[in-house]
Amino acid sequence: PIRDTFTLNFDSLITSRFIDFLPFKDTSGELKWLIDLEQPLQSQSILVNLKMPPASFTGDLFCLYPKFNSSDNIFTDHCFELRCPFDPNDKTGQPQRGDINPILNDEELLYTIRFENLGNDTAFNIRIEDTLQSAYDLSSFRMIQSSHIISRYNIDSDRSLKVFFDDIQLPSIMQDTILNKGFFQYVVKLNEDLPIGSTVENTAFIYFDDNEFVQTNTSIHTITDVLAPKFVDSDNDGYFADLDCDDSNEFVNPGAEEICDKLDNDCNGLVDDGIEGHEAPTIVCSDVGYDFIEIAWNDNSLARNYSIYFDGFNIGHTFENNFILANVEPATVYELCVEIVFDDECKPFRNCISCQTEPFIDLDDDGYHFEEDCDDNNPNVYPGAEEICDGVDNNCDNNIDEGLSFETYYEDRDG
């Protein structure tokens, strides 16, 4: 039988379109279902249609992370390269954050203009023209890279960016389907006084030799003062804040490997879990009496020592794998916890157990437990009792009438 929460995590750029088995949680980058299977061989299928990111992410790696919350069922992460057809002569602006592409005033925009020779002959010269509207701070313009050697580029007084690829000799798609492509990439910042809600639009024009220009799509961004968590990646680890459990630490994200550092590196809600040898001890009540409890646990070669907790307080530590709690009340349940302190930087792991002391049995009410009393049916017989002359071992020392003074009397037969 399985009663557990099944979770599917994915990049916030992926959105769910159709789900045949409705989840109880449907948020950006996460779907959760309650799975309740009681019968053997019973199964539950879930059909989910996902909308992939736009073509600007073609070639990027995306992953789906399925898991159960607590059961031993283990699923394999499914990662894939985004593949799709697209118009090759296009323009993309990063960051990409959905339809309106929200952006802060102080962020840089990374523009990529791609071109492809779809004709039937070589293109000898290619020119790109891109008007940078007044929203851009031209002093921040910086070329990043290009597919081919640039002859020259300049920004005219009318804010028109012109990039020249002279003698590029770009083959046509009929000549070479690989080398018939190219790109130009640059960054530019926005003016910081742009009003919230205003949009920044950018379109490029590509000229192949003396032919008519090819117009790209228009890249649009919208100015905002606050980004939603699903668009924030403060530590630049590739995971937005809505999926990243610590967006200030690049070594903490859903795809990170768990290491010994007292942090939840992989964002599964557990700290330092799944590391070989680092787990809570298995404890048993190895012996109990009416006034003591002994517990034992499996030895761990990585342990520095074992801390013992009783009633919520640390009462000491030991290097052994057992511990005796003495001077406790009879017929009472006590909880004891053992915490493994490791030699490395891993978080200590703790486990607890409840043990019940035996009842105090004293049939003759002389104050001594029946296991200590050599005759628990006689209130005059117990350890420490005064030995009297009665043919009984009164003080339970395995001697009868010892330590007494005797006088010898003789029969006077002649009077």
Largest sheet: 6 strands, mixed
Strand content: 35-45%
By DSSP, the count of extended strands is 24
Q: What best-fitting shape do the alpha-carbon axes yield?
A: rod-shaped
The ordered H/E elements are: EEEEEEEEEEEEEEEEEEEEEEEE
| Largest beta sheet: strand ordering | 9-17-16-11-14-13
The helix tally amounts to 0
CATH architecture of one domain: Sandwich
Question: Whole-number average pLDDT?
Answer: 88
Which topology of one domain does CATH recognise?
Answer: Immunoglobulin-like
Q: Outline the low-pLDDT stretches.
A: none
- The value of Rg in angstroms is 40 Å
CATH class of one domain: Mainly Beta
Q: What is the helix content?
A: under 10%
**What is the CA–CA distance across the termini?**
99 Å
Structural class: mainly beta
List the helices and strands and how they pair.
Layout: E1 2-10, E2 15-19, E3 25-27, E4 30-37, E5 48-51, E6 61-68, E7 78-81, E8 90-94, E9 102-103, E10 108-116, E11 126-131, E12 136-146, E13 152-155, E14 160-165, E15 181-190, E16 199-208, E17 214-223, E18 283-288, E19 292-297, E20 303-310, E21 313-318, E22 322-326, E23 333-342, E24 349-356
Can you offer a commentary on this structure?
The chain has 415 residues and is mainly beta. Among the domains are: 2-81, no CATH class; 90-223, Immunoglobulin-like; 283-356, Immunoglobulins (Immunoglobulin-like, Sandwich). It contains no helices and 24 strands. It has strands at residues 2-10, 15-19, 25-27, 30-37, 48-51, 61-68, 78-81, 90-94, 102-103, 108-116, 126-131, 136-146, 152-155, 160-165, 181-190, 199-208, 214-223, 283-288, 292-297, 303-310, 313-318, 322-326, 333-342, 349-356. Strands 9-17-16-11-14-13 form a 6-stranded mixed sheet, with no helix packed on it. Strand 18 (283-288) and strand 19 (292-297) form a beta hairpin. The mean pLDDT is 88.
